[in-house]
Automatic annotation (TrEMBL):
Highest taxon listed in the record's lineage: Bacteria
Entries under NCBIfam families matching the protein: gcp_kae1, T6A_TsaD_YgjD
Annotated compartments: Cytoplasm
Organism for this UniProt entry: Gemmobacter denitrificans
InterPro entries per the UniProt record, alphabetical: ATPase_NBD, Gcp-like_dom, KAE1/TsaD, TsaD
EC number(s) recorded for this UniProt protein: 2.3.1.234
Function: Required for the formation of a threonylcarbamoyl group on adenosine at position 37 (t(6)A37) in tRNAs that read codons beginning with adenine. Is involved in the transfer of the threonylcarbamoyl moiety of threonylcarbamoyl-AMP (TC-AMP) to the N6 group of A37, together with TsaE and TsaB. TsaD likely plays a direct catalytic role in this reaction.
Protein name: tRNA N6-adenosine threonylcarbamoyltransferase
GO molecular function list: tRNA N(6)-L-threonylcarbamoyladenine synthase activity
Binding site for Fe cation: 118, 122, 311
Length: 342
């Protein structure tokens, strides 16, 4: 196996990103650069990601991100061995910007082009950061994803289960909205929850009574809305302590559901490592609970650094390296796919 240096490009949601990763077999991979340009400010006024705005921003910024990534790595295109790009799933306008940029570079240089599934990028991150051996279990929990994956190889993923409605990050964001807390909701709900009593308000634990690893968060969000209205009735507003208690109850309910489904997945699929990725993996209660769960089961719990848990292009470059070795390159017919199950 030869050493490989790949450029990665990611533009499937609301971050435009480019990175260069080098891997010498037998050594730990080296992230030579990782540039992420968020679009939070562009979408802030709309209470969610607006696809047209995202697509335009990706088209405008992707070349710049690539230049930055190469400059920070101190490399030129001639030093690369290939170009990996997120080819889906995601907002099609953004994915297209990345794929067209990658195709242009591949055509101009003759370098191999590798189309990567965004979820494969997240799922292979534990190998980039910690050299975790196959097989392992992965929990992806972000604003857009929620699934348990069993990872057996660079292209061998088994989806064990996932959310049947909202992703947990989406639920955190919606709860923040109905409680008039700032976006993104995760960090602000977490901060409130620290001042609250999780036991005072009872919220449901959706799908816990059903077998399997599927999760559901939209009923929880509705329950928070109802509890808020009950707390406000006749008071003209939501008391600070009531809001904190509601945030604590919600966060603990999400943690309970995620922990119980994780416990089942780990019991049915004994593996040495359980890894998380996605913005929700930043939640301190969820992290602490999953750490305790894994300690009890004798499984290694791994939460990669947050910058590599959330959307980035280093994970795409790395997945590109692993998949290029496994299956070679794609051709110019590579298409951008809004839907692309693993
Ligand atoms: O992975 P990410 O940056 O982007 C994608 O969704 O792809 O995840 C963002 C999500 C948001 O919904 C945000 O509210 C949530 O992760 N989040 C959190 C925390 N920090 C970010 N949720 C719970 N607790 C947190 N501390
Ligand atoms: Zn993602």
């Amino acid at each position: 196996q030869a050493p490989l240096t790949l450029l990665g490009i990611e533009s499937s949601c609301d971050d435009t990103a480019a990175a260069v990763v080098r891997h010498v077999p037998g050594q730990a991979p080296d992230i030579l650069s990782s540039v992420v340009e968020g679009q939070t400010a562009l979408h802030a006024a709309f209470g969610g990601v607006v696809p047209e705005i995202a697509a335009r921003a990706h088209a405008e910024r992707v070349d710049h991100c690539v230049e930055q990534a190469l400059a920070q790595a101190g490399l030129g295109l001639a030093d690369l061995d290939g170009i990996a790009v997120t080819a889906g799933p995601g907002l099609i306008g953004g994915v297209l910007s990345g794929v067209m940029c990658a195709k242009g570079l591949a055509m101009a240089t003759g370098l191999p082009l590798i189309g990567v599934n965004h979820l494969a990028g997240h799922a292979l991150t534990p190998r980039l950061t910690d050299g975790v051996a196959y097989p392992y279990l992965m929990l992806l929990v972000s604003g857009g994803h929620c699934q348990f994956l069993r990872v057996d190889g660079p292209q061998e993923f088994t989806r064990l289960g996932g959310s049947i409605d909202d992703a947990p990050g989406e639920a955190f964001d919606k709860v923040a909205k109905v409680l008039a807390l700032p976006q993104p909701g995760g960090p602000s709900v977490q901060a409130e929850a620290m001042q609250g009593d999780a036991k005072r308000i009872r919220l449901p634990r959706p799908l816990l009574d059903r077998p399997g690893y599927d999760l559901s968060f939209s009923g929880l969000k509705t329950a928070v809305l109802r509890a808020r209205d009950d707390l406000m009735a006749g008071k003209g507003g939501l008391h600070r302590q009531d809001r904190a208690d509601l945030c604590a109850a919600f966060q603990t309910a999400v943690a309970d559901v995620i922990c119980e489904k994780s416990r089942r997945a780990l019991t049915d699929h004994p593996v040495a490592t359980f890894a998380v990725a996605g913005g929700v993996a930043a939640n301190t209660e969820i992290r602490a609970r999953l750490t305790a769960l894994c300690d009890g089961l004798g499984v290694r719990f791994l939460a990669p650094p947050l910058a590599l848990c959330t959307d980035n292009a280093a994970m795409i470059a790395w997945a590109g390296i692993e998949q290029f070795r496994a299956r070679g390159a794609d051709d110019m017919a590579l298409s951008a796919r809004p839907r692309w199950p693993l």
